[in-house]
Write a structure and sequence with these properties.
Blueprint (H helix, E strand, L loop, with lengths): L9 H21 L9 E5 L5 H8 L3 E6 L2 H5 L8 E3 L14 E5 L8 H11 L5 E7 L6 H12 L6 H10 L6 H10 L3 E9 L7 H9 L5 H23 L8 E8 L2
Parallel strand pairs: 1-2, 1-4, 2-3, 4-5
Antiparallel strand pairs: 5-7, 6-7
Bound molecules: S-adenosylmethionine.
């Protein structure tokens, strides 16, 4: 079995990466074509619970699933019931949930249509399937500054991350790609949009916290230790200087289970 790339990242994801992922999850859940209150909604690739929190705010009855036990363990007692499982083989009967949410998880797959197909299997007819991925055209100079500074300081992007960026993420990184994968899985009522999101990240310190919350940095940050990691973060903030508000471009999908 492959090692879990998110195994060391519960805290950093929840306290760093979620600065960006939470507001996007809120927009995704708000895009549901029908109210989610009282409905059983699957949050697949739930991570530390960004979309589950948005679903709770809409009074949905949420079930969370993720391949990473470490991500699900974050504040587990305050979160919806969960199970470790692969989106490609969900331990759920056909039509057992009302709706499904897949926030930034299908972009980990080299055959995302199989992920959509499995979500279609477990979702009741008429249910909505909501998904997000970053656009292939999402760019940020400030974010690039953090990465290049980290490389100069000894960070090497891990192999799994390079593979993800090259072989999987681009497939859903456009409206056309997202819509084509959902359509190939037999979903209907497909609406794919591409737009920048105001995530409220306006300060270099927030952007650095977000970026270093990504699991691609986890091993390196642990290797260099807390004190050097703190010094690196301060250096990165200074290198960014001023920045425009961070507005990642996101592909939003809403589709129905026929
Ligand atoms: C980018 S994070 C997104 C987490 C959360 N949805 C959010 O928006 O903050 C991707 C999550 O998907 C999980 N994941 C990756 N591949 C998966 C798969 N095949 N099945 C289930 N979960 C998977 C990872 O463990 C990780 O927690």
């Amino acid at each position: 079995m492959r090692a879990d790339p998110y195994a060391r990242s519960g805290r950093r994801w929840a306290e760093g990466a979620e600065l960006v992922y939470r507001p996007i999850a809120a927009e995704l859940v708000a895009a549901s074509p029908h109210p989610l209150a009282g409905r059983i909604v699957l949050d697949v690739g739930a991570g530390t619970g960004a979309a589950s929190a948005a679903l709770s705010a809409h009074h949905a009855r949420t079930l969370a699933v993720d391949l990473s036990a470490a991500m699900l363990a974050w504040h587990a007692s305050a979160r919806p019931p969960c199970a470790v499982a692969d989106v490609l083989a969900l331990p759920l009967a056909a039509g057992s949930v009302d709706d499904s949410v897949a926030a930034f998880v299908l972009n980990h797959l080299t055959d995302p249509e199989s992920g959509f197909f499995e979500l279609g299997r477990v979702t009741r007819p008429g249910g909505v399937i909501l998904a997000t991925a970053f656009s292939n055209d999402s760019r940020s100079q400030a974010r690039d500054t953090i990465d290049s500074l980290a490389k100069s300081a000894g960070w090497q992007p891990p192999g799994w991350y390079v593979e993800l960026k090259v072989a999987a993420a681009p497939i859903l990184g456009s409206r056309e790609g997202m819509a084509a994968a959902a359509s190939a899985a037999g979903l209907s009522g497909i609406c794919a949009q591409e737009r920048p999101v105001d995530v409220g990240v306006t300060e270099p310190a927030q952007l650095v916290r977000y970026r270093l919350g990504h699991p691609a940095f986890a091993e390196w940050l642990e290797e260099i230790g807390a004190s050097r990691a703190g010094a690196f973060a301060a250096e990165a903030e200074q290198a960014i200087g001023g920045m425009p508000p961070y507005r990642p471009v996101v592909i939003f999908l809403s589709a129905l289970r026929p």
